[in-house]
Specification:
By secondary structure, the chain is mostly beta strands. It contains five helices and 26 strands.
Length: 363
């Protein structure tokens, strides 16, 4: 091994040893296959994905690939696939998919977003390189809604002043601008039948700025509505915001962000969870310094105290019921609450899933 490659290897080994680095696996309905174990996809398109370090010299095993399929009449929800020891992944596409968007993540590093067109019976090779030390930009993601009806605005043109990149909102009004330089930018949103909008946004290094835009239909006279938020990079990589988006669409759980917690400023996080998510508090004690969270999903009568819920802290199961023993509200970056096993994501399933789970993510 030459000296340059040796330095890269040592850097990666040191990075892999950092505490707090965990790997989550959420399979994609049978679409994922590891390279070397490829199966015949028949008339379907397929992808051969390789995840490498920034130099392109070293394969990265156990990285996570965020994959979303697109078809002319539908967009699948994103799925997460785990790269195995080979550093490669083989994937058969759904029959109706015409495009795939992929992004690799590992620890605090991520690759650029890759989009590839799909053709029946054709296999595409895709190389995703993780950007570690040279991350110098951020992302802007968001949604465009009708300010009066709050319905998604489809096919709106979203761009940043002075930047050639332009995004078009999908059927849910969503958009993504990737590789945005850090600093302040003027966001422009245009759609026929609506008053154009210009709004100033700030992009931080390695972070995602989330924005919700309310366009005003012409010729209604009112100010455009804009709400912005900054996502925590660590929680985004762990899939918190993705689960929050889809969980709220299908009522699959209750979610709290930093902004929610700061607005309520609870003395104990268990009190906020119980009040907002409909969870019971039990065994609080005389000083009320800690309470147990009990799911009501298994309750059968007025005397039933419910079911003590497993507690996960940064994806590690730390106990049952007493979340206040492990973390204070000011330390929390996000909270996920699932009342029963039916709504639990794969990463929180364990031997006691019948009670649901509470997942706490620190800042």
């Amino acid at each position: 091994m030459d000296e340059g490659r040796g330095r890269i290897t040592r850097r990666l080994v040191a990075w892999l040893a950092l505490p707090g680095t965990f790997f989550l696996l959420q399979l994609a309905g049978g679409f994922g296959r590891v390279a070397g174990q490829e199966e015949d996809c028949g008339v379907r398109a397929s992808l051969q994905v390789a995840v490498l370090d920034e130099s392109g010299l070293i394969s990265i095993p156990y990285a996570t690939v965020l994959l979303r399929w697109t078809a002319p009449d539908s967009v699948w929800s994103p799925v997460r696939l785990e790269i195995e020891s080979s550093g490669r992944l083989f994937v058969c596409a759904p029959r109706t998919a015409t495009e795939a968007s992929l992004r690799a993540e590992f620890g605090d590093a991520a690759s650029d977003l890759a989009t590839v067109a799909l053709e029946p019976g054709i296999s595409r090779e895709i190389e995703l390189r993780l950007l570690v030390a040279s991350v110098s930009d951020g992302r802007v993601v968001g949604s465009v809604l009708d300010a009066l009806s709050e319905r998604p605005v489809v096919a709106a043109a979203v761009s940043l002043a002075g930047r050639p990149q332009e995004a078009e909102t999908d059927r849910r009004g969503g958009f993504l601008l990737d590789g945005v330089p850090i600093g302040d930018h003027w966001l422009s949103v245009r759609r026929l039948g609506y008053a154009p909008l210009r709004h100033r946004v700030t992009v931080a290094r390695g972070a995602t700025t989330e924005i919700e835009v309310g366009l005003v239909p012409d010729p209604v006279e009112m100010e455009p509505l804009v709400a912005t938020a900054v996502r925590l990079r660590r929680l985004e990589i762990k899939g918190f915001y993705e689960r929050k988006h889809w969980g709220e669409l299908v009522s699959g759980g209750t979610f709290f962000t930093v902004a929610d917690i700061e607005r309520r400023n609870p003395l104990l996080i268990s009190h906020m969870i119980a009040e907002e998510a409909g969870i019971r508090l039990r065994n609080c004690g005389l000083r009320i310094t800690s309470c147990e969270l009990h799911s009501t999903r298994l309750s059968t009568g007025f005397s039933d105290t419910g079911c003590p819920m497993p507690i996960f802290l940064d994806s590690i199961r730390v106990g049952t019921g007493r979340v206040d023993d492990w973390v204070r509200p000011v330390e929390i970056g996000g909270v996920e609450v699932y009342k029963g096993a039916a709504s639990l994501p794969a990463e929180f399933l364990d031997f006691d899933s019948r009670c649901g789970a509470v997942a706490i993510w620190t800042k």
